Amino acid sequence: MPAITLNIPSFSSLFRSRIKSPLRRELRELTLPIFIETLLIMMLGAADTFMLSRHSDASVAAVGLANQVITFCFLVFEVINLGTSVLCSQYLGARMRERMEKVVGLSLSLNLLFGLIISAILCIWPVEILRAMGLEEGMLRSGAGYMRLVGLFAFVQALSMTLSATLRSNNKAIYPMLVILVVNVLNIFGNYVLIFGKFGAPALGVMGSAVSTVLARVVAMLILFIIVFRTTVSRFPWEIFRKFPVKDFRNLMKIGLPSAGESLSYSCSQLVIAFFITSLGMEALAVRTYCVNIIMFTYLFCIAIAHGGAISIGHLVGADKWRGAYLMGKYVMKIGIAITFTMAVICAFSGHYIFSALTQNAEIIKLGTTILWIDVLLEIGRPINIVYVNTLQAAGDVNYPFYVGLIFMWSIAVVMAYIVGIPLGFGIIGMWWMFTLDENVRGIVFLRRWDSCGWMHKGFTGK
């Protein structure tokens, strides 16, 4: 491919750069439903946490750690889903619809296989996994019961994630949003009935939350299957089993392994951090669980616009519109920072009231309120990372985010957090300062990468 010369504007002028109206409209149409869908997905987890807080702080800590492990296992599915999203976006931009449909069929088949393997692992060894994570024996029974039931149906989530990625990359993000809306209502109602024993149902506590979560995910998968095969893929491409699409499989792996590797590195670091925090006691683990579920709402919009921007950039890269892709990345980053930082400040001012509504434990309230103020600084770097990890992957530069995450997450967010938090005795507060340092250092690195344009000409439509 011949080199393309770009007259890249300065950073300050990008705040005055205007993305063309059709691109802004496409970004809005993608971002709004993704935002609502992501909000509802987060509310699924938050509903479990907040409703269980009425049961006990110990149950919140146990389920929080179990969900950390389950979420980590779900990253196996992201290897395929990230590749699916990038390839579908670029193939659509290049008008290669038949190859896009083969990718969808291949992705569903692979994730079903991976999902069944993960389901078996989580169902058979929940006690051993949580004990290795350092969960206290008093909380082990409830945490293991939750993990066994939710983990048994991991394959359902694997298929749902692939179906949602397919719809979003085909500019049909509104459908996953509507499905999650329905599922949220079912989950919250199920939690209310089964955790507390309403309408004649038994009060199952933690297991009630698990049953409700599983039922909601099964309903979501069934609805998404119907939508995909009625609106996006005319039929399942059974020919992939007769003539295996080696080229598409290779591209899926080439994108998915390093792309999911970045998420895998992050989640591994979070598991190790959770292990460290567990050693600080139940209060510290409960504080972390509450804070994670509260703070995620501050960067919710950033996740949505980053995914929407990544899909738009994938279309632009597929059409060889590199300047448009560059400007779109800057535009999305600017909006992500502004909204995330504002939400973090609002959350910090409301911190004492939020924690007082969740628990009566004075130590948890004090620690949680302090962390929300520290997080204001963290939310300067996080939106940059969220945006540029997604946009670099969408452009085909899948290795760079993985290497950056591997180096800085583990050296700062894990090693330095451990040293400051445990040997030096600053506890979870000191650890959160190290998380803040990690996010902001990585943000600077990703800013430099995007401005260098070293990510260009790494697309997959010609491969």
Task: Describe the protein.
- The chain is mostly helical and 463 residues long.
- It is built from 17 helices and no strands.
- It has helices at residues 11-14, 21-52, 57-93, 97-124, 126-132, 137-152, 154-169, 174-196, 206-231, 246-278, 282-295, 300-318, 322-349, 351-358, 362-395, 399-421, 427-452.
- Helix 10 packs parallel to helix 16 and helix 13 (322-349) runs antiparallel to helix 15 (362-395).
- The radius of gyration is 22 Å and the shape is globular.
Count up the helices: 17
Order of helices and strands: HHHHHHHHHHHHHHHHH
- The helix content is over 70%
Largest sheet: none
Structural class: mainly alpha
Outline the fold blueprint.
Layout: H1 11-14, H2 21-52, H3 57-93, H4 97-124, H5 126-132, H6 137-152, H7 154-169, H8 174-196, H9 206-231, H10 246-278, H11 282-295, H12 300-318, H13 322-349, H14 351-358, H15 362-395, H16 399-421, H17 427-452
Features:
463 residues, mainly alpha, disordered N terminus
Condensed summary:
With 463 residues, this protein is mainly α.
